[in-house]
């Protein structure tokens, strides 16, 4: 009960890190960059993106599985993180192109001309050439990296402060977060929001100044970075929930009023975990979109955040490895089904096309898991770790369901 | 004796129904008080007002030496100021171990950052173990509290209350669902606690109140009907009318 090392208290952390390291090593060895080419570059990217999705699933598990806040807005933070890094990637890369194309001009271009050129390239598609205010820091990687954390963090802080201090809870809070996500997506869809409207930001897979490095190698770099971020995120989340803070979070989930009467300011804790998980989501997004290559406002739409909740529910709420398993499994299977690689089933009168029917399968499995296996896939681990609830049978001896049962009392 | 809590002229109404009507009440720093009254007399609402769950429409609730008003404080602030509350139904965190429940209640800095970096220490573990011994749950420390029996949950909640080390304990029907021996033990814990702090017990059971052997306040329709020793109030004609007359 006294102080123990984090690993001793959480054996699953060590197992998880070992699995992640093994996975990364195997993908690296079999990747195109290492010569064997058993795993194509595009699949390495898919796996790297999946690791980022696992990271945001951990954030979702912290905020929903542990603290009981069903946020339907964490993909907005994910997307914002992507936009922030995307702005720098696009700016720096376009700058390289503009400078190269102007290098042959008889008169060397002035700085203002270069910037005009970049603006024309980036905003021509929305009929503009001036840099909006939000691009003020796009020239600097350092500043944009700070914004990756700061913009979603501050948005979450303000939104959370307003929502939690008015004691909005449960389904109303979910609706509120969803409204925030929708509002943000609709705003970004506008051309004059300054982020290229529905075109979004593209060409993000090309790292500035790295044209000579093949995508196969770059994809590996991002896989490693994503794996490292996931490992750190998992470790951090384990540390957060393993101590008394985790106790308080789970207390808030189970009986908010009781925690308040113990003297804990529930609003402060909710705000803290909401903001921290928004930042984790943003970091995951900043690693995801350079691998995806493109980001547009449709990525932020509320449905993405709902999918996130589905992943965590299928994987198992309230346990971190459950969230990771759910996100990895569902998103990979989803890629498989929607990628058109699964053969259709001709029934004669109708052909089951999995691209369309996958949604139905996913929805159905979500309903079935919620009804019959509320612990999700992660619950399977309880079978051999013995973390099962006591087998209680017989009649209640006391006044309510918490009382001893007939056969327990005999023991 | 100095006053710890002074409630004066407090009224609350819900949709026109006056749950508390111009109620005044005070209690000293080391005093035991029992509150009795028929159903709907406002006993629980009275506790809700003190703990900040319900806002008073009018009146004053003053706390401690500095006579701070509790009416403007949040539930958590009031709890940190030193008011502990035990609910009628045992409410413990069923998904967590008995140890975690008690550790969460221990009097400590409650700000998110200090809790985040808190990693337990020997002194606190000993405190929790001492509390567990007092409430007879030493062998259950690592069990999930949801597995406990009803009576054990009551104990655990009393233990959590003591762990908070409050100056004022508000206890709602502590003996509900307990065996006679358990009631005996509860009485002795409460009497012991009342030597160093104020204890307010809401109870229906007259036998239990008699054993507490303390001053009794009778509530009726949201205000104080009578106050004094149990024998004094039970011989009061108004009290007899309220309890037997309907």
Helix percent of chain B reads: 25-40%
Overall tally of structural domains of chain A: 1
Number of helices of chain A: 16
Low-confidence stretches of chain B: none
Oligomer: heterodimer
In terms of structural class, how would the helical and strand content of chain A be classed? Answer: mainly alpha
Mean pLDDT of chain B: 88
What is the CATH architecture assignment of chain B? 3-Layer(aba) Sandwich
What's the β-strand tally of chain A? Answer: 4
Spatial sequence of strands, sheet with the most strands of chain A: 1-2
Instruction: Give the overall shape of chain B, derived from the CA principal axes.
Output: globular
- The residue fraction in helices of chain A comes out at 55-70%
Element order of chain B: H for helix, E for strand: EEEHEEHEHHHHEHEHEEHH
Number of helices of chain B: 10
Q: What's the alpha carbon Rg of chain A, rounded to whole Å?
A: 24 Å
User: How much of the residues of chain A is beta strand, in percent?
Assistant: under 5%
Short description:
Chain A is an all-alpha fold and 411 residues long. In chain A, 66% of the residues lie in helices and 2% in strands. Chain A has one domain (6-300).
């Amino acid at each position: 009960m006294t102080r123990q090392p984090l690993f001793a208290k959480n054996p699953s952390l060590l197992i998880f890190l070992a699995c992640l390291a093994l996975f990364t090593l195997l993908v690296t060895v079999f990747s195109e960059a290492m010569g064997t080419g058993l795993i194509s570059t595009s699949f390495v990217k898919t796996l790297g993106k999946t690791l980022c999705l696992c990271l945001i699933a951990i954030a979702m598990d912290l905020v929903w599985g542990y603290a009981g806040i069903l946020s339907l807005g964490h993909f907005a933070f994910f997307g914002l993180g992507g936009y922030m890094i995307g702005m720098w990637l696009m700016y720096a890369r376009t700058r390289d192109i503009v400078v190269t194309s102007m290098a042959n001009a008889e008169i060397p271009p002035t700085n203002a001309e270069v910037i005009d050129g970049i603006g024309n390239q980036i905003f021509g598609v929305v009929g503009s050439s001036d840099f909006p205010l939000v691009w003020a820091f796009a020239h600097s990687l350092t500043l944009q990296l700070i914004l990756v954390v700061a913009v979603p963090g501050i948005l979450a802080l303000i939104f959370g402060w307003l929502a939690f201090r008015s004691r909005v809870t449960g389904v109303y809070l979910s609706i509120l977060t969803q409204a925030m996500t929708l509002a943000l997506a609709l705003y970004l869809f506008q051309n004059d929001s300054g982020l290229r409207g529905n075109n979004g930001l593209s060409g993000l897979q090309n790292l500035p100044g790295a044209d000579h490095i093949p995508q196969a190698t770059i994809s590996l770099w991002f896989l490693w970075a994503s794996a490292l971020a996931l490992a750190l995120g998992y470790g951090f989340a384990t540390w957060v929930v393993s101590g008394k803070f985790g106790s308080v979070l789970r207390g808030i989930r189970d009986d908010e009023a009781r925690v308040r009467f113990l003297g804990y300011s529930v609003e402060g804790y909710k705000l803290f975990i909401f903001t921290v998980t928004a930042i984790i989501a943003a970091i995951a997004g900043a690693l995801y979109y350079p691998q995806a290559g493109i980001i547009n406002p449709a990525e932020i739409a509320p449905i993405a955040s709902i999918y996130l909740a589905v992943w965590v529910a299928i994987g198992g709420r309230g346990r971190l490895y459950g969230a990771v398993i759910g996100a990895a499994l569902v998103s990979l299977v989803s890629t498989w089904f929607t990628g058109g690689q699964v053969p259709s089933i001709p029934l004669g009168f109708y052909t089951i096309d999995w691209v369309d029917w996958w949604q139905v399968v996913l929805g159905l499995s979500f309903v079935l898991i919620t009804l019959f296996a509320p612990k999700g896939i992660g619950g399977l681990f309880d079978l051999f770790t013995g973390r099962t609830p006591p087998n209680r049978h017989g009649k209640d001896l006391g006044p309510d369901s918490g009382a001893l049962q007939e056969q327990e009392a005999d023991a | 004796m100095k006053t710890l809590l002074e409630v004066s002229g407090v009224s609350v109404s819900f949709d026109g129904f006056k749950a508390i009507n111009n109620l005044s009440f005070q209690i000293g720093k080391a005093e035991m008080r029992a509150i009795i009254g028929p159903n709907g007399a406002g006993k629980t609402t009275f506790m809700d007002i003190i703990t900040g769950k319900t806002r008073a429409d009018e009146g004053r609730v003053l706390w401690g030496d500095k006579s701070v008003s509790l009416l403007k404080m949040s539930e958590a602030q009031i709890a940190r100021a030193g008011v502990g509350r035990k609910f009628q139904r045992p409410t413990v965190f069923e998904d967590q171990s008995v140890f975690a429940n008690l550790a969460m209640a221990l009097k400590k800095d409650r700000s998110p950052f200090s809790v985040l970096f808190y990693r337990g220490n020997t002194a606190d573990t000993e405190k929790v173990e001492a509390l567990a011994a007092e409430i007879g749950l030493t062998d259950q420390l690592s069990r999930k509290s949801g597995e406990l029996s009803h009576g054990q949950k009551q104990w655990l909640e009393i233990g959590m209350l003591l762990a908070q080390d409050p100056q004022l304990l508000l206890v709602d029907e502590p003996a509900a669902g307990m065996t006679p021996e358990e009631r005996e033990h509860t009485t002795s814990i409460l009497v012991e606690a009342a030597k160093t702090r104020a204890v307010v017990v809401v109870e229906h059971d007259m036998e239990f109140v008699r054993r507490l052997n303390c001053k009794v306040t009778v509530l009726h329709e949201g205000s104080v009907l009578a106050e004094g020793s149990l024998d004094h109030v039970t011989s009061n004609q108004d009290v007899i009318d309220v309890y037997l007359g309907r």
